[in-house]
Write a structure and sequence with these properties.
Blueprint lengths: L1 E3 L4 E3 L10 E11 L4 E9 L13 E3 L9 E3 L8 E8 L4 E3 L4 E16 L6 E3 L4 E11 L4 E6 L2 E6 L3 E4 L8 E8 L4 E3 L3 E10 L2 E4 L12 E6 L2 E3 L4 E6 L2 E4 L5 E4 L4 H4 L2 E7 L4 E3 L3 E2 L4 E10 L5 E3 L4 E10 L3 E8 L2 E5 L5 E4 L8 E8 L4 E3 L3 E6 L6 E4 L9 E6 L7 E6 L8 E5 L2 E6 L8 E9 L2 E9 L3 E10 L10 E10 L4 E8 L2 E6 L3 E4 L8 E9 L2 E4 L3 E3 L3 E10 L12 E10 L4 E7 L5 E5 L3 E4 L8 E8 L4 E3 L3 E3 L4 H26 L4 H6 L6 E2 L7 H10 L20 E2 L17 H4 L6 E3 L32 H6 L1 H4 L6 E2 L15 H4 L5 E2 L4
Parallel strand pairs: 1-9, 10-17, 28-35, 59-63
Antiparallel strand pairs: 2-6, 3-4, 3-7, 5-6, 7-8, 7-9, 9-11, 11-14, 12-13, 12-15, 15-16, 15-17, 17-20, 18-19, 19-23, 21-22, 21-24, 24-25, 24-26, 27-29, 29-32, 30-31, 30-33, 33-34, 33-35, 36-37, 37-40, 38-41, 39-40, 41-42, 43-44, 44-47, 45-46, 45-48, 48-49, 48-50, 51-52, 52-55, 53-54, 53-56, ...
InterPro entries: Ig-like_dom, Ig-like_dom_sf, Ig-like_fold, Ig_CD22, Ig_I-set, Ig_sub, Ig_sub2
Main location: membrane
Membrane topology: Single-pass type I membrane protein
Length: 845
Amino acid sequence: MDVNESSCVIIPCEFIQKPVQKTIWLKNPEYDSAIGEFVRTIVYDSETSLIDPAFRNRTEYLGNKDGNCTLKINDLQLNDTGNYKFRFKTEREWWISQSNVSITVHGFPKEVQVRFNHTENNEVKENETLTVTCEVKHSHPNVIFYIFMRNEEDLQNGSSSEFVISKVSENDAGEYSCKACNKIGSTMSPKLKLDVQYPPKEMEINSIEDKDNLKEGQSVTFNCNFQRSNPTVTKYVWYKNGIAVSNENMEKLTIKNISYTSDKGKIECEAHNKIGGTRSKQLTLNVMYGPTETYIEANVKTNQVKVGRNIVLECRTSSNPASHFTWHKNDSGGWKQQEPVGYQLTFQQITISNGGYFFCTAENDINSANSSIFHLDVLYPPTTPKMTFENNAREGFQAFIECQVESNPPAQLSISHIDKKSRDVKMMQDTNALKMCFMNLTSKDAGQYLCTADNTEGKSETKGDFIVKYSPKDVSLTILTSRVIENKPVKLVCDSVAYPPSSRYSWFKEQGDSQHKVGDNKELFFSSVSIQDSGQYFCTADNSMGQGHSKTSYLDVLYQPKKVRVLHNIGRSGVKQGDTIVLSCSCVSNPPANVYMWHKITENDMNSIVDNEQNITIHDFSVQHEGYYYCTAHNIVASESSQQISLFLFNWGALKIIASALMMLLFVSVLVIVIFMYRPSPQKRIGNEPDVVYSTVVNSGCDEQARELNENLHSNVKKKPTYDNDTLNYVSLPFHREHKEKEELPGKKEDNNHNSLGSPSNIYSKLQKPLKDKQKDKSDYENVKMPLQACQEKPTEHDGAARASEDLHYSTVTSYRTKKQNLEWESESSSEDESKKTVYSAVRL
């Protein structure tokens, strides 16, 4: 409820009818659990003696004890604003209303007063801070506007209840009042007088005599005057040159027989009251004399000034009449007069060259005087450091790095390596100079160095390169190709760290205990690298200081499988029904072959893969196994195939025919030899006959091939085949046609006309050495396909001639054709030898 001051208000109230013994109205009740009771103001109580004095005789209970609890409050006051609750008591317990009734009483501001804070007797000293407060004891609604007045003139209007004078002056004295306003109206406070106290004002020294032209021997009287003071002046003090000259409380000062030496200077007077004293302006006694106490004064507190500042030097002196001035500076060991002439010497944005030592001269008609020397010390940051390096710094010798600057004050210098921490070296310090000394120089000391100069005015730095000469180090050999493959280009690079840079490079290849030079450039280039280029390499780098060596690096040349051939365990008698045939794929490669493939070609030219292992074993050989076999070896570079090997069952009928043919061949050979022995030019005639063959049968069989096979096989064959030297052996001697045979490709079937037993180019002969007694009934036969590269070395002509007398037998050679059959005992054909017109084959018995 909103009500006005001095009016009345009725608070309607009801409660459920109960047997009630006591009724109470409370203002602003708050329950205190500690005491178990409400802290409150009793507005009404059926026991009237308990009613609060502020509400006594102003409240009426209009209700009863049967359900009506209405209350009336008369003559409302501003402090009646609050929350009201009804409470009653039954026979057993107390009850209180859950909700409350809020009453707000509105009225004019009450008891408005103006106050001066922190004052005594409303007195305030000049220059103090004063706060004027408008105090309102009661106001509902609240005061929203204040008006402060001095001598009935408005000073401040606003919502603030305070008016602050930050620095009180004598003009702030007067009668102050304030007006407090709310929505109902306004109330004016009583007036309050403020007394502002201050020391004497507008001090002045007066004299009857002409104080501007005093001469020595005269007398003069000075008066100390002031314009106003609150409170009144109670004391006077006179000063000469800042020193009190009279202890008497005298308004006047008389100087008799004035003298320059004793009375020169400035006089002042000071008047005092209880607030304080005020000193007059200085009065200079104008006593005629020559310049004295001449000195230089600068517009800075110290003689040290920063470069770039505006500096003014003034020549101060005491003289009468006035003096004129000249300036002097110590420059290049002598004093020189400066321009312009005057009591001031000004430097606009002073520079380093403006600094130095100065004095001034003051002169009038009476005399002249010089000032003391003034040092104008110009401070400036370090200039860009100048770095000096040893001209010919060499590893292992002494060297230095020096850094110099110009600065004022002197700079702190440091020299450091930019890329790494400098090692401990000897440092020699001087004013604005620092030298770093290396007693035993190393290549690691080379590089870029930083010289830093620092003083109070700033910082400067510079960088410089320190060059150290040293022989090549960290010589390295780099193979630029990650995988070196035969017949591909390869580049090797030799790098080094040296100064001066390496001017000559050399390449070497290690061969056993020796080293062979293979190159003279920074790069070693193979346009088409070969297997023979594999090996250990190193390089050297040279400069004017010496030589450095790299570590050896192995050049590993990778190549595809080569010399791919088939090794087997087939004996002289050929392949028989039920044999166990072991085939091994042999090759040379880098890296080693890791994949093998076996192919079989039938007589119908059907090619099929039969296995993917390096070794294969054919158990219980039969007709279904017949065919031409070859293998293919693979590695990461490429693949290569072997020559074909024919596996067919041996034909014994053909063997008898061959034996007969050999006998006929032996007969024909003997006959031919006899004929040639009696001809005039046997060698020439032999060379002109392409069908003559000289052959020596070597009775070594394929023992060497068997040994090689057993070393390469990883199979179940435990024993290599051996053959009796006296058993029958057969040899197939190829006779070449006039035209050149085409070369076979790997993996292709061999030419039947060239390699088959029944081809027209094959001649069969029977060769027999003289029989021993125990061997009269035995004959040796050998079936040989020339050349047998895997089993035997190719004999030289010299070896054949040496054995001709005892081992060489000539046999009759006849051309014998049988049905198609091929007995391959070796993995490689001899197409190169077969291309010749005449074949020389040693057949040793």
